[in-house]
Amino acid sequence: MAAQELTNPTDKYPKPPYNKQSQPWPGLASKMDPPPDHGETSYRGSGRLAGRKALITGGDSGMGRAAAIAFAREGADVAINYFPTEEPDAQQVIALIRAEQRTGLAIPGDLRDEKFCQELVRRAVEGLGGLDIVVSNAGRQQARDSILDLTTEDFDATMKTNIYAPFWIIKAALPHLKPGSVIIGTASEQAYDPSPDLYDYAQTKAATMNYVKSLAKQLGPKGIRVNAVAPGPIWTPLQVSGGASMAKLEKFGSQTPLGRAGQPAELGSIYVQLAAADASYANGQVYGSAGGSGQP
Predict the structure, then answer these.
(1) Which residues does the chain have with pLDDT short of 50?
(2) 3-state secondary structure 224-285
(3) Please, how many CA atoms are within 13 Å of residue 58, restricted to the half-sphere of its CB?
(4) Cis peptide before 296 (omega within 30 of 0)
(5) d(Cα 56, Cα 164) in Å, to the nearest integer?
(6) pTM for the complete prediction?
(7) Pairing with 225, which of 10, 146, 153, 194 sits 20 to 30 Å away (CA)?
């Protein structure tokens, strides 16, 4: 086994200032500058999820894309959901999954619709021949300087995407999940240290942390584990499509001890660890990845 060279995490990826840029919501990773790293060329699998069947929401970009790539390279078949306008990014992910000789399913649709969430699970189960990993990762984040600028429509859209959709999806998936299956949510450092301009988004991430802990207690006796990943500032389309102001975007991640934004590729292995059978005692846990700031 060849020795691996040590890599300094402070200069492993681009540091701020980042270029000013904006995209219409929900944004495309393929149009970001610099482009995010999801592990496309770096992740190496070792069969840890061989034969598993996963559904990942928001699997076209960000942490969802990193998880999809990692899962496929660990031997899993993967279905990804994404908003229809994100089709170009999604097709890149499907190609990467299929390059590993795994089944890759693309299921576009709006998670704010309960009937679609039910249909999503049905199509994933049919297309994969079962389901034993559910990753609720898709999120909506729109920065507003004041609560007075936040409309009821905006608030409702964030709640439905970040909180209602996981409820609908998990409820539909549960009858298909056997003992040994896993559910993974995506929380955030915003659950512990909310930013003033993310009033609605931060609430949903605190709720995510709590539904994970509640469901872990409810489903643990059935042999189904429930955990979450809590990222800090990660370079994804959320930031360039309204999730951060231009001033915040330029110095995104500079406040962390590592002095930069994280990359989705740096979280892929965490999703794998939570999904793998050898993490069988990890239940109700929230795994942080925030560059040294934030909790847990």
Answers:
(1) none
(2) CEEEEEEECCECCHHHHHHHCCHHHHHCCCCCCCCCCCECHHHCHHHHHHHHCHHHCCCCCC
(3) 27
(4) yes
(5) 16
(6) 0.97
(7) 194
Distance (Å, whole) CA 89 – CA 60: 5
Q: In this structure, which amino acid lies at residue 217? A: K
Q: Where are the alpha helices (DSSP H) in 78-198?
A: 87-99, 114-128, 152-159, 165-173
Q: What is the rounded CA–CA span in Å between residue 191 and residue 41?
A: 31
**C-alpha 116: how far from chain center:** 19
The CA radius of gyration of the chain, in Å to the nearest whole number, is: 18
Token readout for 182 is 């896993």
Tell me the per-residue pLDDT of 110-134, one tens digit each, with 9 for 90 and over: 999 999 999 999 999 999 999 999 9
For residue 104, what are the β-bridge partners? 78
Q: Kindly report the average pLDDT of the chain as a whole number.
A: 97
Residue 278 exposure: Cα atoms within 13 Å on the Cβ side: 7
Can you tell me whether residue 195 is helix, strand or coil? coil
CB 54 within 8 A of CB 31: no
Of 192, 201, 211, 271, which one is the catalytic site residue? Answer: 201
Give residue 200's Cα distance to chain centre.
18
- Residue 201 is among the residues annotated as catalytic for this protein: yes
- SS3 at position 55: strand
Which residue type occupies 132? D
DSSP state of 135: E
